[in-house]
Amino acid sequence: MGATSQNVEGPSVAGAPAGAGDDAAAGGGVGVEVVEVGPEDHVAFVRAVDTGFLRRRKATDEEVLAGWGPLLSTGRLRAAVDGGRYVGTFRSFDTELTLPGGSALPVDAISAVTVTATHRRRGVLSRMMAADLRAAADRGQAAAILVAAEYQIYGRFGFGPATEQLTGEVVKARAGRLPDPSAGGSAGGRVELVDTAEYRALAPAVFERLRATRHGVIVRDDRWWDIATGIHALPGEEWNEPFWAVYRDASGAVTGTLRYRVETRWDREVPDGRLTVEDLIAPDPEAAAALVRYALGVDLVTRVEFVQRPVDEVVPLLLEDARGWRVLEHVDWMWLRILDVPALFAARRYAVEGSLVLRVRDRDGYAEGTFALEGGPDGATCRRTGAAPDVELEAATLARLALGGASAARLHRAGLLTEHRPGAAHRADVLLRTAESPWCPDNF
Ligand SMILES: CC(=O)SCCNC(=O)CCNC(=O)[C@H](O)C(C)(C)COP(=O)(O)OP(=O)(O)OC[C@H]1O[C@@H](n2cnc3c(N)ncnc32)[C@H](O)[C@@H]1OP(=O)(O)O
């Protein structure tokens, strides 16, 4: 294990040669080398990620290793090294992304991207990204995904925002008549509060039903569930036990799950609590409505916040007075980098039968070319073609359209999509857009 004395540049590492590396002409400055990180340097990697994200973690090396080691072992770790110290970090791991129509596309998920303040804007991220995307393409993965810390970072690497999400709040006093939380579902089901172990046992199956149907969703593996339920503690991160609830339909089957926390507040003798719905997974409308009504009905609470929700969230439609709902934040969320246009577009499904010829420009080559797409509800083909294109766009713009969440007509108005045939943007929308918005409920 490398020494872990922290300084501004991050810890020194065992697996990297001090001072070794390529020259400034390769980018990244003199002496900076991009290396793969093995288990012997997991602690140094975590410390460097913390430095990059401006965090000070109070945990010993042993605690860091016990908490993060199993997680890091499932992914690929890259680091930039200068003088034997990590100055850049990059993690990627395999997951599956649900496409419109329900098929699961194997993709490369990127996280823990940092470059220390001393080495920024010298091309260190560019080199780590280039290495990772090349490796993902060589493995046959059709796309890479990430959640961007800042909007301006990833477009240059061919990523575009493929899902958006919102956080909204219900001000109960303005929402009209509120439901009785004990009333249960309209179809004879009921909401039950459960303990952590029951939730851990019941929730994954409900999530799998969402994943099979909602495009934009990615895998939650056992490790994810253990961390999300506090069963696997992450060192230096405080765990506050939330409330867990499930919805059982009339047959007793669990069809929805809810994780929420409450901050109790008082305005003198008047209760003014805040309830935050952190994770609401309910593929069935009946379960979704029952769990929303339950959250709104909890006493001693005046505001209920729903975080990381799809942009077509139903909460306002469940209120007697929809003006009790207000959107607090509406942001880009999961960014997509298409590495193989035919593989992705042939794997998704389309609401109606249609065809479209796309000319895609890609500085890095992966998505460059002209592609003939023919698709419908039951299947699709997407092949390279010599035919004249209907529309022309950058790979990063195509990423916005890939999951059906963006409007080609709007992109055309913004000058991001060129029509080579009049009306082609509208035709693209008829083919590519989806009735439900793509939604990635997770941060990774
Ligand atoms: C998936 C995730 O993990 S998201 C988390 C991203 N990490 C963070 O936000 C932590 C704090 N920031 C950082 O660690 C770094 O600034 C990083 C990782 C964002 C960028 O690393 P760098 O090594 O500086 O990037 P690099 O030098 O390769 O930049 C490439 C280009 O992107 C631009 N760029 C990089 N970061 C940003 C940014 N935050 N805003 C605007 N432009 C940026 C650079 O100016 C450069 O432009 P150019 O090619 O026209 O010269």
UniProtKB/TrEMBL annotation:
Chain ranges of the N-acetyltransferase domain: 32-198
InterPro entries referenced in this protein's UniProt entry, alphabetically: Acetyltransf_17, Acetyltransferase_Eis, Acyl_CoA_acyltransferase, Eis_dom, GNAT_dom, NAcTrfase_Eis, SCP2_sterol-bd_dom_sf
Alphabetized PROSITE patterns for the sequence: GNAT
Catalytic machinery residues: 154, 444
Positions of the UniProt region annotated as Disordered: 1-22
SUPFAM superfamilies: Acyl-CoA N-acyltransferases (Nat), SCP-like
Origin superkingdom: Bacteria
UniProt-annotated binding residues for acetyl-CoA: 113-115, 121-126
Summary of subunit composition and partner proteins: Homohexamer; trimer of dimers.
HAMAP family assigned: Eis
Protein name: Putative acetyltransferase
